[in-house]
Amino acid sequence: MKIGIITFCEAVNYGAFLQAFSLGEFLKENNQDVEYITTRSLKSVYWNVHNLYAYHLDRIAFRNEFRYKWNKAQKKLKKTKKKSGYDLVIIGSDEMWQLNGKTVKPLPEYWGVGIDSKKIITYAVCSNGTSSEQVRGYQFVIDGIRKLDSISVRDTRTQSVYQELTDKEIDVHVDPTFLVDLRKYAVKPQLDKYLLVYTYSFDTDKIKRTKEFAKQKGLKIVAVGNKFDWCDFSLPASPFEVLGLFMNAEYVVTDTFHGTALSIHFHRQFCSFADGKEKILELIKEFHLEHRNACKYETLSEMERVPVDYIKVSEELKEKRDKSQQYLRGFIS
Fold first, then answer.
1. Angle at 271 between CA 269 and CA 273, to 5 degrees
2. Which residue from 333, 9, 330 is spatially nearest to 150, judged by alpha carbons?
């Protein structure tokens, strides 16, 4: 089958790239011909350029290496501007249905409008706090929902918002990074005995708590994608080097959805500063990992009294992964 994927594959963001890559790899493992349909707004172009080129003078070498590795990784994705001639188009994953974000402008294509395909479905899309009132303010969203052959979302909030608008059954499926075994794509790091920090930025309190914990554990602090002076190492890593850093980390400290998801994927001991972050709170609740919310504790060491039981997590993940893979195979078999 000829399959087109509409997602944020060009966003300068590790999570966005890896979810796009993972969905494509799953489809290719099932003998499908996959392309990524590029649909960028001026707003998204601005933020991508900003993320690649906005640096201080002392960070020029860091950004240049990051940009080189990022552009090389992008070549792994077969891209096209073509919006017709497909057997199946899949919209998702990630925050494709967000209507209130500063970095993303909602485009009709994100709801299947203007796309010519025998079937159009979504997979694990997320609205990230968008309300049903906001959704009703966009006619192309209403039109698109009616046109879609099937709707899959990533979280129950998105499910409840959009279920009000359609009689179609909306189901919840795992993020694409859970669909495939990412170990085979991971580049092994040259470092060992380190704590991986995965964030856009930490405030003073989070930095203090992370440094105290790393010192107690005797671990170096490694950050990726951003140059943080408070870390021992800041690496302009490629997405595949990031996978290796997750896979080999002694511990992960994060405050992002994909930082949490990748920690779970690679069975790492981790913590997430999750308060006020609906996506992370639902993810850790889904796997009964509410105790990994670092905001509940005075120090990160307190949390270590109850480590993650990955035997139970693996059982739950297998069930959710099988259900998600079955959903996709129902359209490609």
1. 170
2. 330
What six digits make up the tokens of 230? 């408070």
305 and 299 in contact (C-beta within 8 Å)?
no
CA pseudo-torsion sign 219, 225, 230, 233: positive
DSSP-derived 3-state class of residue 48: helix
Q: Under 8 Å CB-to-CB from 236, ≥6 apart: which residues?
A: 62, 63, 65, 66, 69, 225
Report which of 167, 135, 140, 137 is spatially closest to residue 151, judged by C-alpha positions.
167
Q: What is the pTM of this model?
A: 0.92
Model confidence over 15-65: pLDDT tens digits? Answer: 999 999 999 999 999 999 999 999 865 445 544 555 555 545 567 888 889
Asked whether 278 and 270 are in contact (CB, 8 A), the reply is no
Q: How far, in Å, CA of 274 to CA of 294, rounded?
A: 7
> Please, how many CA atoms are within 13 Å of residue 184, restricted to the half-sphere of its CB?
7
Strand partners, 90: 5, 121
Other beta carbons within 10 angstroms of residue 323's beta carbon come to: 13
Q: Which two tokens stand for residue 251?
A: 């511990």
pLDDT at 128: 85
Which among 122, 86, 90 is positioned nearest to 2, based on CA atoms?
86
Considering only CA atoms, which of 307, 312, 209 is closest in space to residue 253?
209
Nearest to 238 by CA among 45, 77, 106, 74: 74
In this structure, what token pair is assigned to residue 100? 């209130």
